[in-house]
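Blinded run. Sample ID left blank on purpose so nobody reads anything into the name before looking at the predicted structure. Input follows.
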Amino acid sequence: MTMMRATTAPMPGEGFEWLAAPWGHRLVAKALQDFRHGWTTRQLQLHGGPDVERAGWAHVAQMTGVQPASVLQMHQVHGVGVHRASAADAGTLPREADVITTADREIALVVQVADCVPLLLADPATRRIAAAHAGWRGTAANAAAVAAAEFENGRGALMTLVAAIGPSIGPCCYRVGPELRTSFEAGGWSPSLLDRWFTTRAGDLYFDLWRANTDQLLTAGVAARNISICRLCTACHPDWFCSYRRDGPGAGRMAGYICSAKC
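Blinded prediction complete.
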């Protein structure tokens, strides 16, 4: 377990709080309080030797109340592929996907990140859940809306859908090149949206993953009152979060996890 130099947890945005976990701290969203869920910190090692990884994922299983083999990861490829998970996936290799969803209460879903958005979604009415991975490529491909669409049933399900954005690189630190905005323009995103997502400071261009994913959820039909953003930048808090942008290829990984079983 990585030792933390900072003893005071960074203050999350409205609707989030820190709770105790076997590894130290976990972040939770109050809107998802009826679901077993959370986001880990760098306190929990999820990448390393087999024993280290086994112990880390066993802790996640403990928090969700499922067997370790039923904690389902994805082979994330920065796309928008969807895997609709079931109990048959327990113990199998991760499927290639960046969105994973289920209504099975015996399995937990996981998204791994080190700057990208770890998005957790749940419908309290149906108990369907999803986890999505949205870096800039996933955001350009509308990953948040793809995840939300998995809850559409023609009976207004999106109005009860809850979505929460966990720790990820913030607009304070996500400096990008002009070619990134150009790639969004080529993807058909409107100038008005891009003006919201990209800002220039001191001659440098910055991208706001939080606002972009929120706008995509809103456009998909998720109610504004049901979208929570923790507003914790992974690059700003080296004692608490892994950050690929800050630490490079040696950066660890954190997880967002959720299970449809009630707390």
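Unblinding after everyone has recorded impressions. The radius of gyration is 17 Å.
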